[in-house]
Design a protein that fits this description.
Length: 339
């Protein structure tokens, strides 16, 4: 082994130090600074945050739109299940079900008893609830609570709020309802041409109104305009909460006050007629409010169930004459193609 002299050792160390000095000098020439390895400047960090914010701003609406598309598709599926239940009832009984059943009270007045959705229970896989109904009592009687106080997912639109209870008061709502008459006030406000009748397919089991030119029971042959060109069931979403146009929640203390009446699926009052107050100043006649009116929380329109069992989405700006032609089922209307 060679033993270095002091002179040789000092000479070698000086060479190493000179090499390190040259490396540091070269690093300075390419922009390296002490403490700069592995970090970000404040400006760089702010730029990254801004870019992430922009990307999130672009992504969130797309995600929300995709979710609403799924919800609207599910809503269509629920309406088709109701349509299938109505046709199953039709196959068994030979007639369409009434929108509601009624009875004559001791004072001679006719009162509501049960809703069409209660009649359809065995056809939506709710035979146990159907068997528990006492048809001689009203829907809200104590004897019927076991059957009617049940949340039915098939009667709910997924775009509407899930929990709609008010304090200790529980609701068992429906977002789908019958709408069986366009009253004269609506026709006048919209300037609709005269027709021989103004009723849709489903009718109450009794009516003493002069505006009804047809009576239940309704046979398929009575749907003169065709099953594929006649509305059968409608969206009436969000009850008992109060909503206004665009899905905006209404002031709960303004008339009508929350909770809205006729919200439960078993309530025969959940079905309604189109009255003059449904027409807004700009001429729009649905999606203005959900107080016993055609109303959807889907942006821009609503889903409608047809008498052939299909369901389609229509814009809230649909032409009034076209809507009336689809609403009435025996007025001799010719519906435009491509709807």
């Amino acid at each position: 082994m060679k033993i270095e002299t002091r002179r040789e050792f000092c000479s070698r160390q000086s060479g190493c130090l000179r090499s390190l000095d040259r490396f540091a000098a070269n690093g300075a020439n390419v922009g390296l600074k002490r403490g700069s390895f592995g970090g970000f400047t404040l400006v760089e960090l702010l730029v990254v945050i801004a870019i992430v914010g922009i990307l999130l701003g672009l992504l969130l609406p797309a995600v929300q739109a995709a979710r609403e598309t799924v919800r609207k598709t599910t809503c269509v599926s629920h309406m088709r299940q109701i349509g299938l239940a109505i046709h199953s009832y039709l196959d068994v009984n030979g007639v369409f079900p009434p929108t509601k059943t009624t009875y004559v009270a001791p004072n001679g007045q006719r009162r509501d008893r049960h809703n069409v959705l209660t009649i359809l229970l065995p056809f939506v896989e709710e035979s146990a609830a159907y068997s528990a109904v006492d048809w001689t009592a009203t829907w809200s009687a104590a004897v019927n609570r076991e059957a009617t106080e049940k949340r039915m997912s098939v009667f709910l639109c997924p775009t509407a709020p899930g929990d709609r209870d008010f304090g200790t008061k529980k609701y068992y709502p429906t977002d789908y309802a019958s709408c069986y008459l366009i009253r004269r006030g609506v026709r006048t406000k919209l300037g609709l041409r005269e027709r021989s009748e103004w009723t849709s397919v489903l009718l109450p089991d009794f009516s003493n109104s002069s505006e009804f030119s047809r009576r239940a029971p309704v046979y398929p042959s009575a749907v003169l305009d065709g099953l594929s060109s006649s509305f059968l069931f409608f969206e009436a979403s969000g009850r008992p909460f109060k909503f206004l146009r665009g899905g905006r929640r209404g002031d709960p203390n303004e008339t009508p006050r929350e909770p809205l009446l006729n919200s439960d699926w078993a309530d025969p009052g959940s079905g309604f007629v189109m009255d003059a107050n449904v027409v807004a100043p700009d001429g729009r006649f649905f999606n203005n409010a959900n107080n016993n009116e055609i109303f959807s929380l889907h942006p821009g329109g609503a889903n409608f169930l047809y008498a052939d069992g299909s369901a389609r989405f229509h814009s809230e700006t649909i032409d009034a004459e076209t809507f009336a032609a689809l609403f009435t089922c025996a007025a001799g209307d010719v519906v435009p193609s491509g709807l």
